[in-house]
Design brief:
By secondary structure, this protein is α/β, with parallel strands linked by helices. It contains ten helices and eight strands. Bound molecules: pyridoxal-5'-phosphate. Pyridoxal-5'-phosphate binds next to strand 8 and helix 10.
Length: 213
């Protein structure tokens, strides 16, 4: 398994469609030793879905690699917000008022400004993360006006097994409606569709690092 050639192939596929799109190498469950070749190669963007794992893996190395950018792509619990604000540059999973409020408090306290994607849930499945489309307007206003968070775009995870294209299109339309330029959509299985439909941040794990155990 050659991580670098996997990565190069994906980057080439992505850049053929959108040269400015960012490939996030999703390193969750993989050790720093396993990720290190890609860091040495010069790749800067990495995704994690658990704060504690990310902290254990990355907190030392980012001190000496200030250009690295860490992306929180998983559910963020409010009791982990302080660590998250210290560690991450991007949060892709902003989806509730309490979380937004806490993020704003720690941004002030730590003098940091992160970049945020609001996670959208088109499913109407209450168990899933994300804001439903009919609550977006109210939520985005709260995040921007009350919490002063830098909202750069929307993120979605289409339901497993469904054709993702309709979801990607809806997310793109939503971003246009709210004049947001960034879209976090597309994973190993569907990133080509996502990039065709306007994604600017794709989140790739297994196609780079191999299957997670
Ligand atoms: C794990 C994960 C990914 C990467 O998935 P792959 O199929 O391995 O590319 C992308 N986005 C989120 C939110 C994830 O949790």
């Amino acid at each position: 398994m050659d991580i670098i050639s996997n990565f190069k192939k994906i980057k080439e596929n992505v850049y053929n469609i959108n040269q400015n799109a960012i490939v996030i190498a999703v390193s969750k469950t993989f050790s720093l030793d396993q990720v290190q070749p890609l860091i040495n190669y010069g790749h800067l963007d990495y995704g994690e879905n658990k704060v504690q794992e990310a902290k254990d893996k990355w907190s030392k190395i980012i001190i000496h690699n200030s250009k690295l950018r860490l992306h929180m792509i998983g559910k963020l619990q409010t009791n982990k917000v302080q660590d998250a604000v210290k560690l991450f540059n991007f949060i892709h999973s902003l989806d509730n008022e309490k979380l937004a409020f806490k993020l704003s408090i720690y941004e002030k306290q730590l003098s940091k400004k992160l970049k945020y994607f609001i996670q959208v849930n088109f499913d109407n499945d209450q168990r899933k993360s994300g804001i439903s489309p009919d609550r977006i307007e109210q939520f985005i206003n709260y995040c921007k006006l009350d919490c002063n968070l830098n909202i750069i775009g929307f993120m979605c995870i289409p339901p497993l097994g469904a054709n993702p294209d309709g979801f990607f299109l809806r997310l793109k339309n939503l971003a246009n409606e709210y004049h947001l330029t960034e879209l976090s959509m597309g994973m190993s299985a569907d990133y080509k569709n996502a990039i065709q439909l306007g994604s600017t941040f794709i989140r790739i794990g297994s196609s780079i690092f191999g299957n997670r155990s």
